[in-house]
Design goal:
By secondary structure, this protein is mainly β. The protein is built from one helix and 14 strands.
């Protein structure tokens, strides 16, 4: 599946033979699955067992060279969300929330499984190569405040592809309608480790 969509440009000047554009960075899929163990018990104990609440956190978890810091837990009666940020450079390019197809679940040490409640959100650092800055993961279900650990499973993480890629399209023989052109990058992309 392609995550490239339609591009629209202003009218070309008469006699134009080629258009060129740069594209990137963009968030795409990766094949990597990841499991993080979260010793969440001390934070859960601060929540109301029935109504939840909000708890500021400073919980770091690492797996396979990717480290994330979880900074806030917000819980209601039937859902909750986790705010997180990258805790090392490789994680800046691999957000836990990403494009369609990314699946994140949590299982606690009491056998409860929490599924995504909505599409996760991600913030980007426009001053730093558009690296991933922070995100929120949302889940459905009522938190068991007696649990001590969570296992967060992320299937097919997102990946920031830095680019930019330069595309050149020959339009000298374009006569209208949809051109039969497949743009090819003229330079290799720069991807994060």
């Amino acid at each position: 599946a392609s995550y490239l969509r339609e591009f629209r440009f202003p009218a070309l000047p008469r006699g134009a033979r080629e258009i060129a554009f740069l594209y990137g960075p963009f968030l795409g899929p990766d094949t990597r699955d990841l499991t993080l163990d979260l010793p969440i018990g001390p934070y859960l104990s601060k929540l109301d067992p029935k109504f939840g609440g909000e708890v500021e956190m400073d919980l770091m978890a690492e797996s396979e060279g990717l480290a994330y810091r979880f900074t806030k837990l917000s819980a209601g009666a039937a859902n909750f969300s986790l705010r997180y940020e990258p805790a090392n450079d490789p994680a800046r390019w691999q957000p836990l929330s990403g494009p369609p197809g990314v699946s994140v679940t949590i299982e606690d040490d009491r056998g409860n499984v929490f599924t995504p409640g909505s599409y996760g959100t991600s913030g980007w650092d426009s001053n730093n190569d558009f690296a991933f800055r922070d995100g929120t993961l949302s889940f459905t279900g009522h938190i068991d405040t007696g649990a001590s650990t969570w296992q967060l499973h992320a299937s097919k993480l997102g990946r920031v592809y830095r680019g930019p890629w330069e595309f050149r399209v020959d339009v000298s023989s374009y006569t209208g309608g949809l051109p039969q052109v497949t743009p090819q990058p003229t330079a290799a992309p720069t991807t994060a480790p």
